[in-house]
Amino acid sequence: xxxxxxxxxxxxSLKQLYKIFGDDxxxxxxxxxxxLSKADLLDQHNHVLGLNDINIDIPxxxxxxxxxxxxxGKSTLIRHLNLLIRPTDGEIExxxxxxxxxxxxxxxxxxxxxxxxxFQKFGLLPHRxxxxxxxMPLAVRGFSKSEWAEQARKWLNRVGLDGQENQHPNQLSGxxxxxxxxxxxxxSNAPIMLMDEAFSALDxxxxxxxxxxxxxxxxxxxxxxxxxxxxxxEALKLADKLVILKDxxxxxxxxxxxxxxxxxxxxxxxxxxxxxxxxxLRVRSVMRTGADPKSSSGRVEAIxxxxxxxxxxxxxxxxxxxxxxVERGGKVVGQLDMTDLVxxxxxxxxxxxxxTARKVA
Length: 361
What we know:
The protein is 37% helix and 23% strand. A six-stranded mixed β-sheet has the order 6-7-8-3-9-10, with helices on both faces. A four-stranded antiparallel β-sheet has the order 2-1-4-5, sandwiched between helices. The chain has a four-stranded mixed β-sheet with strand order 11-14-13-12. Helix 8 links the parallel strand 7 and strand 8. Helix 5 crosses helix 6, helix 5 runs parallel beside helix 7 and helix 6 crosses helix 7. The longest helix is centred in the middle third of the chain and has 18 residues. It is globular.
């Protein structure tokens, strides 16, 4: 996860997006607009509410993670971005253009050149070699074999599969197959990468390796990534922006650190209850800006703005009077004392009424 002071431009924008599955979605829309819940819509009208008034600005060059439990609408949402599913109502803008107005030719170009997708079940063709699978995005666009093979081999090497290009998918482990899927998405050279539960089928250690690889690649390539997961630890590790869904609507969205410190309601609070806050929270999120670091004991330690609170605790070595000067780029940007640190480790109470917020920016 990166931290930038400037606000990135919006690459993809979802505006008042609704999706209702059933025989008469337009009629069902009226009931939803009048406040009918997902459960009542299904019970009374036999229609399924997939997405309910979704508004998200997806920043360019950042990783936006969309998470929620099964049935929350997260996989339905990501399939709207390349119009594998069309909405019942709303707008989907990519680079300022409403793609709902695209022709079939424009949609093919969008899917082949502007967006790539990494699937949970890998989506590899079993009768093709690793090299052929990785080179497919360029092959279908008419590139010569020498051209697509060169690019595919480059990205296979980059994801740690050098020497495997002549293997077939069934000769590879699950983790290696997903590396092929990632190489295929990178070979397309698309600026937007969609990842639908891409690592959830992997064993924990392999999953961690893939997360680290993705972060390493993202630091280098600065793709606009939309990543779907049901795992909060994964979401917090990867996200520049986090969107939490429930029953098809947004409960809370924003910078992950702020969501941890300021949960919108009891639903979000329940999500984050078991998180190791010391390991996840960054010094920059709880420091006091512009303050002159002072300690009653005279002990002042330097720490980076993006260091975790866990690393601050380790540096303190049990000294509760220590004060940290927080640095970024060689400059002091604030201070952190142990009182503020310990306070940040205690979860905030959700709003007293316990009602789930429909949208929180």
